[in-house]
Amino acid sequence: MTPDRSHCEGCFRTIDEIRAWSRADDAERRAIWARLLVRAGVPLPEELSAP
After folding, report:
1. How far is it, in rounded angstroms, from Cα 21 to Cα 8?
2. Checking phi first, is residue 42 left (phi over 0); if not, alpha (psi -120 to 50) or beta?
3. Which Pfam families match (predicted)?
4. What's the pTM value of the predicted model, to 2 decimals?
5. How far apart are CA 20 and CA 43, in angstroms?
6. Which sign, positive or negative, has the C-alpha torsion 25, 10, 12, 20?
7. What is the chain's alpha carbon radius of gyration, rounded to the nearest angstrom?
């Protein structure tokens, strides 16, 4: 976890996102990926930035 405990330093997911991952459907997983890429400072691929 980051020093402020906001997310994992390795995968960039929050605790809530880690907990939700195994039961998340494809749409929710794409949303989690989009948020973690933003946290990591990585530009979003087109398929994740489209609604």
Report:
1. 14
2. beta
3. DUF1289
4. 0.75
5. 24
6. positive
7. 11
